[in-house]
Prior knowledge:
four-stranded antiparallel sheet; 4 strands; flat
Amino acid sequence: MRNIEWEFVTRDIKSINDYFDDLELSNRDLKKILLETALPEKQSPEKIELLLKHHYHSWDRAGHRDLIYFYLEQRKYLLDKVFEFTPKNIENFLRVNRILSEGSQKVMTKSVEMARELQNREDNFTNYYEISGTVRVLYDGSDSLIDFDPEHDEDELSDCPHIMEIISSAMSSRYREDLFFCYPSKNGDLYGTPLYADDPWNRNFDSRPEFAGIRFSWAFHNLVDHTLYALQDVVRINDFWNEVTVIHQNLDGKERIID
């Protein structure tokens, strides 16, 4: 019996030692990568993308989420600094803003419409409900991007994730995915984000004559200023998700049993 117990103990000790040996090796490799990429000549969006694509899955499994956020934020900062407002990019900004504006209006209108419909029901079940409307952007493969380039963009069969897939996954963990959201109350009031952004809201857009007279939606403002998407990403987005969710709740009284 003692031999069996000792076998389990030694096996556990070996497992513990192996675990920390692997952890030490992993940390050494991670430190080497971070020191190399901290050099000024290594600070480019292309090199950051390459680093993320090759290490994203292993970093995600190891719980290095802060590291992923750091590099995505650095990538956005570097790309936004060199972004060019070409006629094509301006056209695509207006396209994205139009789609997000229309989507926000749709979910707002539908949310109010469904609230009024539920208020008029008397079926002893839908007296309690919650309604929310949201607008998001998605990445679901090559069709989610305009001008998909097989030489630069990884396809669905690649071992490396696309940078937009990495951003989408990271967004769901830390950043609010809902670019616009609203929810109607039972008294008819509508709460949530504004439909349009207050002026001025972004110096890159406010100072440009090409956008004079354009009303930018709050969803577009959130996408540009409060997500991990760089401006170069925003002009390529081609997948949008509008959703109105209704949750019915039925609260029955508890019967008291008297002995």
